[in-house]
Model the fold of this input.
Amino acid sequence: MTSQNQAHGTQRFGRLIERADGRDFPYYNGSPVQVAAWKWGLIVLACAAGFFTLMFYPATNDFESLVPRILFPAIPLALFILFTGEYWKSLFHKLSGMDYVDMVLFWLLNLVVSLGIGTIVAATAGATPNAVADGVLDGGPAQVVAFYVGTGVQLFGEEIFTILPFLAVMYLCHTKLGMSRNAAVIAAWLITAVWFGAAHLPTYDWNVLQAILVIGAARLVLTLAYIRTKNILVSTGAHILNDWVTFTFMLVAASAAGGAS
Done:
């Protein structure tokens, strides 16, 4: 371990949560580059700008939706690269075999947690279905391909939308508020779960319990994939597995229903 990792070794959550590989979160303590608080503020605003582009761009099908889906991660990532230079790459690491295992494990954990909490919320407060796959089959195979490509990019954007604010909150809590590394991680983990859940309020017809509890809980699991690996590609992989499997079941069911009618 490097001296920096040794300094933080006593603060780690343990092997059940964090791998014993010495890899630490970037940016929160000035390594590998210092990102000032005002820059973090603009990065978070850029995440919001990407989200509003996704929400309000006038797309009528999955081909047109490729534009806002690409801009969703591109807007904040472009500003982040501007502010961090070559060190933006610290968000990403080469995938290992264990990374792929973690993608599957966190997908399955997310499935269990989402189903459990979702069942309780649906029974008590009702639930609004996600209509993202509605009408996809009407455009034929080409639109199905555009749907999967576009949603894959959008899900990467959702990781950018979460992990950059996660690192911003962690920096603020640790560097500016003097919180310990682990306390800063917990604060960032919880705050960005609410942030992510709140962003889904329009999707679920402003059902607060569904957005904050169900989607927020799913976000907690997906962010754990990042906390464990410090690699946004792993949380993205788990997120894509989770949503693409769900979308596939929805499309297969829609196709079967259409064939039976």
